[in-house]
Amino acid sequence: MSVLQETISEETVRELSEARDEPDWLLETRLDALEALDDVDFPDVIRTPGRMWTNLADLDYESMVDPFSQTETKEWEADEGIDVLPFHEAVEHEESLVRDAFGSVVDPETNHLTALSTALFTTGTVVYVPEGVDAEDVTIRTTMNGRSLFNYTLVVTEQSASVTILERQDSGEDLDGARYYSGLTEIVGGENAYVQYGSLQDLDQTTYNYQLKEADIDTYGTVDFIDVNIGSRLTKASVESHLNGDSSESKMVGAFYGHEDQHFDIDARVWHNAEHTTADLVTRGVIDDEARSVYEGVQNVGAGAWDTNSYQRENTLMLSDESEADASPKLIINNHDTEASHSATVGQVDQQDLFYMTSRGVDERLARNMLVEGFYVPVLEEIEVEELREDLTERVRERLQSRD
Amino acid sequence: MATLELKNLHAEVAEEGGETILRGVDLEVSSGEIHALMGPNGSGKSTTAKIIAGHPAYEVTEGEVLIHLGADEFGEDFDIPEEKRTWDLLDLEPNERAALGVFLAFQYPAEIEGVTMVNFLRTALNAKLEEREELFEDEDEEAEAEAEATNEDAAGYESSPMEGPADEGEVGVAEFQELLAEKMEQLDMDERFAQRYLNAGFSGGEKKQNEVLQAAILEPSVAVLDEIDSGLDIDRLQDVSRGINALRDETGTGILQITHYQRILDYVEPDHVHIMLDGQVVKSGGPELAEQLEDEGYDWIREEAFEAA
């Protein structure tokens, strides 16, 4: 069922790999992924009666994916003491590290789009934080210039290492027609390690965007996600944490703001696979104009996950009558020794709140803007990287100010 | 000197076949006066308060809500021309009414997460002063200001909602913080409240205290206090009462106090007491009227009103 049999052949993949002097194991992994395209499905999406919210299979990949037009500008910033390397440099200098970790968290054959990404990616970053090293503020900026871009990020933290990462994507000059961005992120959270991985997706509104970010978290480890989606024409983005070690934790924070005809399909999923684990899922989204959003959050509590704490709340705020939203929080409990909650709401700006504020002298437009900005505060409070906090605030404000 | 005047006010719930709630309310509250508006549940007291402030849930079918302003109501430097001394509030948005000196203390104040008290109050104070300038601008100035406004950024404050607004507007951050600290002290409020989100997680009493604080900051000409005394323990009742008296004595605010109970009237002594029944003010008198109600309930008023009809 590959949608791309014409453009993507074994030769294509071999050519991409050879041009980058890749070792055999990586070429083999790519070829396996290519072969799997025919066997694996598109990512799961929400269905409500009579409706599939995000139809990934029907997108026109033929016109969007051009394996040889992948150009981008990348910038890296990092402290001393850790390695932040372009992917192919890392393959050269830290081959065994990359080889061990590559594909260990995100299985390339998870779905059709992960397989496509693995077969075709040309750029990426490896962040390696050795044992005991405390690294602040790694920043990875990717500006997409071509028709399509397949990006890959690997974060490996050893025991008691700690790192704060901001990875952001935006677009360079405009192109006619649709574009495609795909990004896979794997995070190996070591024993007692701490990672905050923040992401700001601000691609232009002609871009179809697929992203999967997944973390394996060892004993006493913490991996927190901040997943912010502002740009793109359509986004399918999943953030997934596997709490594999006892007493591991994950906070999964999301924010999105859709306007015009943007479409966001956002997932957050956690698996409690060990004892005394904690997860906290918080997502806040705003949609305006004719934008659509659909959210699915899943907390899986395994049979062996004694003493689990798992919380989930999602709130979508609709600013227009034409926008549409759906939200589905799910809680699957296989161990009774669990404290859990899950909730989701879809609503509009509260009229009583507005009246309260306007009665004190603030005009309705400013009152509404203050309420919307305030709505994101639970997300902003979690963000450790100042650049991400400021940019989210700024982008939200720009959108609000551009409203009629 | 300002006077809020309700003339033959009729109103119903703003929906198809909405219930009629007010059936001709007449009331006048002037600067420096304290009026108590009493009456049984469902008599229309809260509706009256909300209509004065411009709540969208009610539709006025007859009558007027006017504010009359003296030439120097907004200070000696702010000269109000003859033709702009009387306004029909029903033609105005809630924020414009606030700019003309109207304040409503809510019975159930909204809890607003993500907007700090200090941020909100300074924004409100500056917005009110700015709106006032606009309302009293003559036509030439108006055109000029509009041209200017198109060059300015649209609504929004410049820094993060967590940190509060940047130093813009008529009242700057430092000046405002001083004012806020002073008013909070008068009300015996912990200064940490300033950094908390507006009413979020406040106790019932803290919310009421916060309503009085906001009135103290915004210095209204007329304040309508909708059951400001409900849910207050005796200490807080005294704090709140002190705040209301200060509002009258220091700012010259006229107070319309809606209450069920005599209790707060021991601390905030009314000059006038009005009794509402079935959407009308059926009896007005001095403070003794409230005492009589406390002793005898509303039945005698009902009988009197019935006989008069």
From TrEMBL, chain A:
Domain SUF system FeS cluster assembly SufBD N-terminal residue range list: 64-136
InterPro entries: Fe-S_cluster_assembly_SufBD, SUF_FeS_clus_asmbl_SufBD_core, SUF_FeS_clus_asmbl_SufBD_sf, SUF_FeS_clus_asmbl_SufD, SufBD_N
A Pfam family assignment: SUFBD_core
SUF system FeS cluster assembly SufBD core domain ranges (all copies): 144-375
GO BP field: iron-sulfur cluster assembly
Family classification: Belongs to the iron-sulfur cluster assembly SufBD family.
The protein's name in its UniProt record: Fe-S cluster assembly protein SufD
Classification of source organism: Archaea, Methanobacteriati, Methanobacteriota, Stenosarchaea group, Halobacteria
Gene that produces this protein: sufD
UniProtKB/TrEMBL annotation, chain B:
Entries under InterPro entries matching the protein: AAA+_ATPase, ABC_transporter-like_ATP-bd, FeS-cluster_ATPase_SufC, P-loop_NTPase
TM region(s), chain numbering: none
Ranges of biased composition (kind: Acidic residues): 133-151
Chain ranges of the ABC transporter domain: 4-303
Sorted UniProt keywords: ATP-binding, Nucleotide-binding
Region entry Disordered, spans: 133-169
A molecular function GO annotation: ATP hydrolysis activity
Record bears the keyword Hydrolase: no
Gene3D superfamilies: P-loop containing nucleotide triphosphate hydrolases
Keyword Nucleotide-binding applies: yes
Any Pfam family hit: ABC_tran
Record's protein name: ABC transporter ATP-binding protein
Organism listed in the record: Haloglomus irregulare
